[in-house]
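2 proteins. here.
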Amino acid sequence: MGEVIGELLPVALGVAISPVPIIAVILMLLAPHAKAASVAFCAGWVLGISAVVTMVAVAVDPVDDSESGDPSTLASVLKIVLGAAAVLLSVKSWRSRPRGDEEPTMPKWMSAVDTLTATRALGLGALLSAVNPKNLTLCLTGGVMIGCGALSAGEQVAAVVVFVVIGSCTVALPVLGYLTAQQRMQQPLDDLRQWLTAHNAAVMAVLLLVIGVAVVGKGVAGL
């Protein structure tokens, strides 16, 4: 199990460092009615990651039927495909980065994120974690690693929990910090939002490239 957790850590960290959901939750926290929407968004984010990783892990579990625990050919191919997808997304993200004094382009829905109700924030959190191509690629990769890791049912559950906790920490921690120290957190959160907005594309490009190459390498090694 330790080897699988080790492989999962950088992928889960990639989900955690995804700037867009962090910016979204910070905007909610800086809005007049911050608590309900931000908590709901965090819950949706956790549910979305959990659902994708669990379903993929269950779906690919029969793929690895070797007694030695070596990855099957199909599992290795899946890793190569997902790793290649991460690399392609990295190139796309890098090419979309702002140049010079150009203002960074953020999703149009983000302009209204501070007015979201709790219900819509819940749905948005789930969509960003489970449908956004960058996060979906990483969550699929995590699910494949767990499913083809020759783990028992209990170990798979533990691995999913580890992945979800790490992948959700950067969304959950600002919410918890705000709820416990609202006044002190406002300025640091706003500073973090501005930095992430400016460097969103570059951060994701580097992150996806590193993870994608690593996952492709794991897949090639398993063939």
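next one coming up
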Amino acid sequence: MLAAIRSVARACGMAKLAVDTGLGRESLYKALDPGAKLHYDTILKVIRALGVRLEAHAE
């Protein structure tokens, strides 16, 4: 999942994403690097800035 988020983030532009999330560009690169320790709040900010909505449904 992180690889997909990273690909979309780079395609949209990390500088714009940094502005939209309120995070530094270098911080975004570090957060999305392979092997990075995921921080839920950072990933959630990125996902929201990309216009993605996550939902969970019980069956």
